Amino acid sequence: MGAPLLLAGLSLHLTLPPPDPAPAAGVDWQVDFETTLLRAADERRVVFVAVNMDGERANDRMAEETYRDKTITGLAEHTLNLVASVGEHAKAERTCPRFGDLTCPDHRRVDIDVRERVLEPDDEGFVIAPQHVFLDPDGKVILSVPYEISAAELEWCFFTSLKSVDPEFAHRLSPGARAPRRLIMGAVAGAGAGQAPPTREEVLELIAEVKKGNLRGGERMAALRRILLADEPEAIDFIGDELRRGPPLGRGAGRRGGGGGARAAGERRDTRGPLLHAIGVRSPASYWEIVLEPATGSDQLLRAEAVVALEQLAAPESARGIGAALKREEVAEIEKNLLRALGSAGAADKKARQTLLSRAKKEKDPILRANAIVALGYLARHADVDERLRELLASDDPDERVAAACAVALTRERGWLEVLDALEQGEEDEEEKPGKAFEDACTGARAVLEGGDLAPIEGSLTRVCRDEIARERLFGGEEQRRRRDD
Fold this sequence. Notes:
It contains 23 helices and five strands. It is mostly helical. It folds into three domains: 33-193, Glutaredoxin; 198-247 and 270-313; 351-472, no CATH class.
């Protein structure tokens, strides 16, 4: 009788689930801002600064996943790393469970120093979080990225920053690594870059207020714009329901700008178009699902805003739906933007790359072809894409050349500067000079590739792609334009 009991016990033991693995080691954070800068200057090291906050999903993902990504932690061994967070996660003398080998007083002191020395707080002292800044050994900003970025984008930032200080730095970029959409070269996001996302508690309170009907007109729209900043399931569901509501009754329903007469007292304003536009500019990528629905709906004005929003959200999960919509699309004004959205969302997707390469070569409609060419600039680096862009930069078609110049700017890969310089030198030896449109596009592309934002190519890209809807997430809004002019 003993043997069966022993075997039964052994069987039970063998079928128990294994213990949960220990969390992956994260970035090795330094404990003091000033000491880190002194060490960086002495050792000629890059400084990586991560700004984080509690109670918000994007910040939580960065702390719990991205800073523990194997590629990121490997690259962070070559930099000196600081995390700035005002949160308290353990008693003062204990190791911080959120950030590892430092205490909460350590990252709180760093937060104070970073706000004073690196970031640009608003009038109330608030800063954008998450936010990532890379400093050179002398403490000058190499690049920064406000809001959440993926591990692949952060990898590109590490590589680019390290390479700028040490041209011999060797690292093979992952297939999906590419420049972040919100990349800022040589500076940090200013106070006018937008509100920080609300905490979960704030979101739930705002949703409750809107549902009670206590807010009207501008106040209600302001609340909706605040809610759509949040990467919370309740926020996404609530904004999704708002987008599914039909247009208001009365004259002018569904028209751009609400034209057709004044609304009757108490009549609800159609907020769907402005909301879709705001999502594209300000929301986390997780909003793609509620945007894909109107992108494939029946209202052409809403479809146009939704597709541009998908381009700016650049959510890889949306690439499949965008590709399916592209195959069915019959309206050229929508189709051209779907091509761009496919490149943005499908940056590392093989099918998206094949589709765009084919359309850039074989598409007969010149506007659709130009948009497919520009979309190539969104794709992760690939030999076939590089080869095609080189060919297009030397094309006989002026619009193809302009589109290709905009595409190489979107890549943010400095290696294209040599190609542009060689192309310019070759044309100086010829009798015929390139057209002004191409010259302007190349000038803008150089400015971007030399470390600027994307604003210098906005005019060229807008003209060659025949864009009617602004893409503030890419090129900046009115506040950013005023700052550049100043």
